[in-house]
# Entry
Amino acid sequence: MLRSLVGSEMCIRDRYQRRVREISRVNMGFSLQLVVLLVLAAICAANRLVSVHGSAFERGQQLGQQLGGSIRAIYANKLERSQYGEHIQEWAKIGSAGATHMQQWTPTAWAELKGMANGSGLEVRVLSELACDWEMTMLLMGGNRRCTAFATMEGGFLSGQTEDEDPDAWLGGGLDVVVTSDGAEDGGASCVYYTHPGVPLYMGINDAGLSVLCNFIDNGERNLYGGVPADAALREILSLRSLEQAVDLLREMPRTAPLNIILTQPGAGIVDLEMSPTHF
# Structure
């Protein structure tokens, strides 16, 4: 099945096989590992697997160089075809506030964001606004987003989630990527994650076996100018080595809006966190 997904092109097959060897070294349950490999196989077949290495800034720079055109397309689409364009000043304010909090609470995500701006030739402002997409969703559309996530330890760790956003807002998902990120140079974790170009992270797993998923909940609370952008927090989690560190970050950081986050790690278990600006 994996072979048929990868296809016959030698270059894509070679890239896929290298990723299998890399991911196989990650300390995670077999079932979750298989899920990751299936996703990678499908992405490789579409040639949308991006590999980066070096410091956090350098990794972001490489993302910007490889995905700059996709980031521009997504940002333009947001302005032209969604309510974002009608609230551009609000988006700019939320992005500016988010940048301040990212610098303090999510240094890895912030360094990658700055590198992405440098590599793509886009303003840091644009990348900060894209990092605050969840916050804009909560401002404009609130409770009409219904992603579903799950995790189980039966027969090995297995976790996953749906992606139930409006496809038109992301150009049908046709530009989405899986990123393999080597964080060894600056002492961080290496990881594999899925995201939209320009957005820090949606879901993924690192080489400590720590995985992160997220989905919508809502109690009506909003702190859109006073907290860490959710997608930056998700990226920061995969720079950490333990589930306990991830929980501590989410507990201590100021939060913008309600969110449900599922964390898993072999040896540590599964944690399902429901949080909001005032509740954890």
Remarks:
- Strands lie at 49-53, 149-152, 158-161, 177-182, 191-195, 203-206, 211-215, 259-265, 269-275.
- Residues 1-13, 23-35 have pLDDT under 50 and may be disordered.
- The chain is about 45% helix and 15% strand.
- The first strand starts at residue 49 and ends at 53.
